[in-house]
Structure formats: C-alpha cells, structure tokens
Write a structure and sequence with these properties.
- The complex is a heterodimer.
- Chain A is α+β, with helices and mostly antiparallel strands.
- Chain A is built from four helices and twelve strands.
- Helix content of chain A is about 30%, strand content about 30%.
- The N and C termini of chain A lie far apart (about 70 Å).
- The model of chain A has no long low-confidence stretch (mean pLDDT about 80).
- By secondary structure, chain B is mostly helical.
- Helix content of chain B is about 75%, strand content about 0%.
- Chain B has six helices and no strands.
- Chain B has helices spanning about 1-20, 30-40, 45-60, 65-85, 90-100, 110-135.
- Chain B starts with a helix and ends with a helix.
- The chains are: A alpha+beta, B mainly alpha.
- At the A-B interface, helix 1, helix 3 and strand 1 of A face helix 1, helix 3 and helix 4 of B.
C-alpha cells in the first residue's frame, strides 16, 4: 500500500494559531505577576534612597538648620490644621446628628506609597506599599477616586484603577435625583443609566453615591466630557474623564471598611 | 550566553517600566530587546516567546498581547524569506508593525519612538554578535 502523505495548508495552520492566541489573550491573568515584582521594584528604588541619604552628608549645617526650621514651622501649621479639622469634624458630627444625615463612617483611612505603575499613558494598574489593607478597599488621591485594591501580599497591594472595565462605581450629582454607574472603558469612563430629563452638563463633577456600600459617599469620581442624546432611547450616552490624576501622585489614601478583616 | 543576557535585560526593563513610568518617558525596554533578538536570528523564538509571555503577564495582566505579535514574527519571516529572499526591508516593516501594536495597549507615542530607537541599535549589535559566533 503506497504511503499517502497529507499536505497541510500553511495559511490554515497560521489562521488557527492566530485564532487560538487571540482567544487566549482575552483572558485576564490577574494581578499576582505584578505583585511578585515588588522585590525588583524595591531594588530599583534603592539607589534613589541611597542618594538621598548620601546627599545629607554633603549638605552644610546652615542649610540643614534652615530645612529643620522650615519643617518645624510646617509641623506647627499642620498641628493647628489638625486641631481645626478636629473641631470642624465634631461640629459636623453634631450638625449631622441634628439633621439626621449619615456621614462617611465605617472606614479607616491610611496612606500608601506608590511603588510601581503599569506603563500606559494613564496607568490602569498600580502597585502600592501598604500594610493592613483588604481586597476591594477603596483607593483615593487628593483629587478623587482612583480605584480598588485587587490583590494583597504581606506589605504590598495591587490596585485596579477606575479605567478597568470590571469596576462600576455608583455615582450621583449632589442635590439631584441622578443615580448612575461609572464604568471603565480603558482610557475613559462611560456613565450608564443617565435619564434624558436629568442629563448633566459638560464639565459637571460626579461623586460617589455610596450605594452598594463599597465606595464611601461624597468622593469626586469623574468630570463629564460628552453628553449625546440617542433618539428613541430613555438614557443618554455620557462619557467622562477621571477627576484624579494618579499618574503623578507618589502617595495615595486607602479607605478600609472597618468591618472587613485585613 | 546571548539568550541569557538579553532575557535578563528584558526582565530588568520590565521592572524599569513599572518603577519609573510616572517620572520619565521610557521605551518598552523588554519589547525592544526581544524584538531585536528575534529580528537578528529567527530561531531565537524558542526563548523570546516565553519572555514575551512574561512581559504581557507582568505589564498588561494578560496572557497575550505582544505575545501574539511576537509569535507571528518568525512565521512572517519564514514566509517572506521564502518568497522575497532574506532582506532588511521586510524586517524593518515587521519591526514597525510590532512596535505600532503597542499603541493598542495605551503606550504613548514618545514611548513607541523610544522603543524604536532602542530596538534598531540592539538589533544591529545582536546581528554583529551572531555573525561573529558563526564565523
């Protein structure tokens, strides 16, 4: 019996490989590989820290004294601000109890040092050096909402920013009946379920509504950039950009829910 | 030895991308050196592809983005070398296409240009090194 050699079409094999690779690429691998890189990132940051320590040896005493006095003055100013904020917090608590409004309670706030960022123009993932946080804790910058904690190790955590499509933030505009959802679209935000009659204007800021219990209420989330009514539809198409610019922040705040165990 | 050195440089590059992406505009170090390695010698796919896989997993939390492009490069090189003969122009086109593919993952245009500027000299250097080892 003669040997029959089958001939495979190379383009068909190539196409199958492309389809297989493309389908595999759609799966998300999770944040553990980025979390595993923290020793390398710490090592890369070390020379900068050494340089800072070394440069102190060559700074003359007069300059050090000036810096000390400046820091001392700043510390005093901050102590005064803390006193003022404590007084205001107490006043706020009393006013809220009179008006029967619940405040941002049930969260513990702490600071986290940014150690690494994914390399996009506006990073979609961040690696933080932080202790005692839990998965789904909320990350906030001085400007607004950044994202949520995705995974944690002993002293590091990875963050999914609001650009991630897996995050939906319940948002509102204070003083209105708006209750919408802000969803990540990679490099922008899409605001869903905005009724035509209460559609916001371009430039308006959306805040967390607190619905769902994951995000504390009253945190700035997004600024409206585009409002497009769709004929025959109940809801308008709204695009927005995040209020926070976490690409340049070296420190971020973490809001941990008090009932959650770290 | 070349494979080990390039792989280590690629790993260092990934860490640089993560550590300093906010403070300075930088190329995709790993992609540049891995692309140069595969362009210099197509049989390098055997160690370049695992590194490209690692690059995607660490930087993009995905199983394959650059990996798909890198996996197609040796196939494209075999096909083009067979039909057009081994030559630089088709490799340059492949390099540009591979670097442009990074734009779909949100890399800035400056980063793409820097990646290109890094890839070309590394490609030249590796080609020279491979030529030395074969003679």
């Amino acid at each position: 019996m003669p040997l029959v050699r089958r001939r495979y079409k190379p383009w068909l094999i190539g196409l199958l490989i492309i389809i297989a690779l493309f389908s595999v690429s759609r799966f998300s691998v999770g944040s553990w590989p980025m979390l595993a890189t923290w020793p390398a990132l710490e090592a890369l940051h070390k020379p900068v820290q050494w340089w800072d320590s070394l440069s102190l040896w060559f700074t003359d005493s007069e300059k050090l004294q000036q810096q000390y006095l400046a820091f001392h003055k700043k510390a005093q100013q901050q102590a005064a601000l803390i006193q003022e904020s404590n007084a205001l917090r107490e006043e706020n608590r009393q006013l809220r109890s009179i008006l029967d409004i619940s405040g941002i309670t049930g969260y513990r706030w702490h600071a986290a040092k940014v150690r690494g960022r994914s390399p996009e123009k506006m990073s979609q993932r961040i690696l933080l050096q932080v202790y005692g946080v839990s998965k789904d804790d909320v990350i906030v910058s001085s400007e607004g909402l950044v994202g949520v904690v995705d995974s944690i190790s002993e002293n590091h955590a990875t963050v999914r920013t609001v650009f991630d499509a897996s995050i939906s933030v319940p948002v509102t505009i204070p003083g209105t009946a708006l209750a919408a959802l802000a969803r990540g679209q990679g490099e922008s935000l899409s605001i869903d379920f905005v009724p035509l009659e209460i559609a916001p204007k371009i430039g308006e800021i959306l805040y967390t509504s607190g619905a769902g219990g994951l995000f504390p209420p009253g945190i700035a989330v997004a600024r409206i950039t585009e409002v497009t009514p769709i004929p025959g539809q109940l809801f308008v198409k709204v695009a927005a950009e995040p209020v926070a610019h976490w690409q340049r922040d070296n420190w971020l705040a973490v809001a941990s829910q008090l009932h959650a165990t770290p | 030895m070349i494979a080990l050195s390039v792989s280590l440089i690629a790993l260092l590059g990934m860490s640089l991308n993560l550590a300093f992406s906010a403070s300075l505009s930088q190329p995709d170090w790993a992609m540049a050196v891995l692309l140069a390695a595969i362009l210099a010698h197509r049989n390098n796919w055997i160690w370049v592809l695992p590194c490209a896989f690692l690059h995607d997993v660490i930087l993009h939390w995905s199983f394959g983005s650059s990996f798909i492009v890198m996996a197609l490069i040796p196939l494209a090189m075999i096909y083009l070398d067979k039909h057009l003969g081994p030559g630089i122009p088709q490799r340059v086109v492949i390099m540009l296409a591979a670097i442009l593919a990074l734009a779909s993952w949100g890399w800035a245009i400056q980063a793409l240009l820097l990646t290109l500027c890094l890839c070309v000299p590394v490609w030249y250097l590796l080609t020279g090194l491979y030529a030395q080892t074969t003679t």
